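Subject: Interface between my chains keeps coming out wrong

I've been trying for a while to get a sensible model of this assembly. When I model each chain on its own everything looks fine, but I need the whole thing in one frame so I can look at the contacts. Pasting all components below, labels as-is. Any help appreciated, I'm running out of ideas.
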Amino acid sequence: MPIHTPAWVRDAVFYQIFPDRFARSGRVPFDAPPEPWDSPPTTYGFKGGDLDGVTDRLDYLQDLGVTAIYFCPIFASAANHRYHTYDYMTVDPLLGGNDALRRLLDGAHERDMKIVLDGVFNHASRGFWQFQHVLENGAASPYREWFHFDPARLTHRKPFQPYPSEEAAAELRAGHGSLEAVGYAAWWNLPALPKFNTDCPAVREFLLSVAEYWVQFGIDGWRLDVPNEIDDDSFWGEFRQRVRAINPDTYIVGEVWGEASRWLQGDMWDAVMNYQITAACLGFFGGDKLDLEEARRPSSFSHVRAFSAQEFADQVARVTGMYDPEIVASQLNLLDSHDMPRFVTCCGGDKHALKMAWLFLCTSAGAPCIYYGDEVGVDGAHDPDCRKGFPQNEADWDTNLRDWYADCIALRKAHPATRSTNKTLLQAKDSAVAFLSKADGQNIVSAFNAGTREVLLDLQLPTAQPWNVLLATGPGLELKSTSNGVTLLLPGRSAVVAGA
Amino acid sequence: MPIHTPAWVRDAVFYQIFPDRFARSGRVPFDAPPEPWDSPPTTYGFKGGDLDGVTDRLDYLQDLGVTAIYFCPIFASAANHRYHTYDYMTVDPLLGGNDALRRLLDGAHERDMKIVLDGVFNHASRGFWQFQHVLENGAASPYREWFHFDPARLTHRKPFQPYPSEEAAAELRAGHGSLEAVGYAAWWNLPALPKFNTDCPAVREFLLSVAEYWVQFGIDGWRLDVPNEIDDDSFWGEFRQRVRAINPDTYIVGEVWGEASRWLQGDMWDAVMNYQITAACLGFFGGDKLDLEEARRPSSFSHVRAFSAQEFADQVARVTGMYDPEIVASQLNLLDSHDMPRFVTCCGGDKHALKMAWLFLCTSAGAPCIYYGDEVGVDGAHDPDCRKGFPQNEADWDTNLRDWYADCIALRKAHPATRSTNKTLLQAKDSAVAFLSKADGQNIVSAFNAGTREVLLDLQLPTAQPWNVLLATGPGLELKSTSNGVTLLLPGRSAVVAGA
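Reply #2:
Try treating it as a single job with all components included. I did that and got this:
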């Protein structure tokens, strides 16, 4: 079937915000003070970021070149990450409530900036209305089909254990399923996250109406949390039809760390969070700084390893070859997120790695996405450390890095070839790799040397026009035209983009 | 201080509705069928009554003479009685949501009928937002001051047990407090009902703003659930000021089964649910049919006992003498409620007792209140049996009884003296008692014989006018004028009202 993805995504630059940690407006009251903004993040602590704080900083994001924001969940949830949804129809009061989202949408749309929300449809929280209704009433609740319950507990013969006793917790630790240990199926057997029974018509209708409601409200897309766990193509097919009927430009991007062809045939989602390219970037740009122990912390990243230039080129070809070009051009390309250590931390704190990788994303098809704070040098180990408060004091920002981020974005906007799916490998040699991207008669060469020693590349190019350096990580590189292309001397840990 | 109660209450006839059990509109979808309407009520079962069902039956209530409805709780709650509030700003979706309340208010107000809601401000439910927030986050939650928590659980050293494990349940059964057994203070140590910390400014503001919100929405009064457990006069003083500022005619009636002078000085509430008069009526009108075992089921009714006519008269004098006449005229006088066995059941099923008692309430100062279904002969033992579905089939109604209810109400409306606080004992003799009520130059005699044998009363009356029977339970009574009053021959189990 023909694949249609929203045109705006192909040209978009995303910024991912963890709402509790990006910015605090100071206008949302806290009944008891949150933890200090600059203290190390904790599992349960709130720092008090809110949506008006984001609205106040839209100019900052616009100056950076950002055109779309992807938010981690914002609906009412008794967790700082808000993946435990309490009320799908209400923006968390600690984030400012629905009115704050209205102000944010208005402010963003005035700037032609899109807003994508995180949709957690696989599971609710143990505080969720229909779930609590069954905990209280057992089989007598009209919501008894909404989740997967242990029949013995539905009849009150045995107590549910949503907040497990020490005994129930021990059972879980011993590997018993949550259905057995606490009385219901839960995501990863975590009692906080009861899994919806999406075979129940009322549940489907509820979830799909939530998806519709917020698109109607004005959001521009849904990032879908663990959507592969709703193992039902008809659900996602209907999801697409219903949100697209309201706004045909709604972006639908699934969180799938692995291969995702099943959902990317044009009838379900537009894209996935491209953790496959993340892994490739870590393995290559990390170079000898790659901290494998840290990088492998996310369970899906246990395979991450160092790549030579040729291996990286193979990975890039593999990842971009997985899907239709329309999908590739719509992927959400990211270096890190709230679910993994910061890229710079995986690379032993080396900002050269980050700068090269960001330039690589900005010269690749698919929308590059900045995880908030990466652009000013925020580091952080695995969750919760990767969720620090964005530095409030500009003196703590790496403005050189931020300027690099802005320069890469500006380059991407100025040169459509950077976003083209027509991208080929020119050469992979030692620790260096070069690609050629084409669009609208324009050619772009992007080249990266992840090693510490300089590499000389001899690139055959399809045009005799003079090639000019458009952007480079630093001094020391040499670009010379040859009869059929250029030679490129790349210092260690450097990258360059040239155009003709 | 001068006492001002809403004028409308003094002339009101209330009807108490248990929302799940009065009437089903059929327009609220249930995801799984509720239990059969006519089956015996169960602890957890829902029968599916809703607010539109009530709106559909406003004509029935109007025909009966009802002028005000007092609803058991209607806000979102995972319990069929809805005392476990989940969301104070939302009418339970199973009752039709906020829109259904709007329709009900409009329909009632068109008929000049008032709506009083049940306000459960002492405790929330274990599903309540701010409570769940602390269960999840412990001391890191900004809501940590909203309830009374065990410090050891706040720091996650020990799990909260809102749904107690078998061990925690055993501790509770052994008499340990909920703070110790499950980690927080709860009403009657019931884990479902965490007690608010009303010393926390945010909690006060929340509860008072809820009270304001619904008065602004259009309700005419608050019945306060266990309000004496908020042991803080300043709270109730502010409560009164704030709701009265919005609508000076807002009725505030507390659920206090005992003496309540503390709150009835004019600066807090207007009235209480007059369970003191209930107990007196049971003791007298029950006569030899009084089922003490059933009547004493509510913990506050352990003192209920049979009364002679003189004892009853003493009780009436005691109860009406407790408070200022302005308060007495505004009391909510009831024969039974959702919290006790039906009056008729306490009286061994004897409807004479019910008829006499209802006439007594209708000839007493204070607003008489019908517990839904009493008027058609619904019986029921202690909770949950006292919460049966209102018979759907008119063939199952005792229409004779209903007509009696209507006649008593009509009498009350036609004769202001019935509502007067100027009521004196004329005579108490054997099993019979007679009262004289005066208002606007009108005199009313009400007389009741709770025994099985006839009693002759010789009543001295202040007027030489002829006395006429206005209403009587049945034939056989004889009323004769004397030089200074009347003689009244009352058959066993009968009552009469005469006017001059």
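Reply #3:
Confirming on my end. The first helix of chain A runs from residue 7 to 10.
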